[in-house]
Design a protein that fits this description.
By secondary structure, this protein is mainly beta. The chain has one helix at residues 59-68, and strands spanning 7-13, 18-21, 27-40, 46-58, 74-87, 93-107, 118-119. Helices cover 7% and strands 46% of the residues. The chain has a five-stranded mixed β-barrel. The longest helix is centred in the middle third of the chain and has 10 residues, at 59-68.
């Protein structure tokens, strides 16, 4: 049986892209993408948890990411989870997991003229109608905090 390796992120960039150029001229771009969850406790206290994801882009998608993406931009990414391993100077095996982007769409205003910029390497453009940030907090519903069993 074949498995499925698919990651979908909708978040904001934590810093400008890091660009690496290989000897053959190809590029690799690395981003830090933040995704956040917000909920309320039983005492109606607002809690926010942010998770940071390392995302890499290669080839044409790396060119687009380098040109258009900047710190704070909202971005939609589809990709694969990749884990690399190496041994440190003491011989201890280390692991690092990142998302290898396959598709990317910029959400909201694009660079320069304020029009929405979309960048896709493969497949159909993805244009989720999810705002980058909620203008208002959703109304608190205490029934969502209780477990029904």
């Amino acid at each position: 049986m074949n498995g499925v390796n698919k990651v979908i992120l909708l978040g904001n960039l934590g810093k400008d892209p890091d660009v690496f150029i290989f000897e053959n001229g190809n590029k690799k771009v690395r981003l830090a993408v933040a995704t956040s969850e917000i909920w309320r406790t039983k005492n109606n206290e607002r809690v926010e948890h942010t998770e940071w994801h390392s995302v890499v882009f290669y080839r044409g998608l790396a060119e687009v990411a380098e040109k258009y993406l900047r710190k704070g931009n909202a971005v939609y990414i589809e990709g694969l989870l990749r884990t690399r391993s190496w041994e440190d100077e003491k011989g201890v095996k280390k692991y690092f997991t990142e998302v290898e982007a396959q598709k990317m769409s910029m959400i909201g205003g694009g660079a320069g003229n304020g029009k929405k910029e979309e960048a896709m390497l493969k497949g159909e453009p993805v244009s989720p109608s999810i705002p980058a940030k909620l203008e208002e907090e959703p109304e608190y519903d205490p029934s969502l905090d209780s477990v029904p069993f």
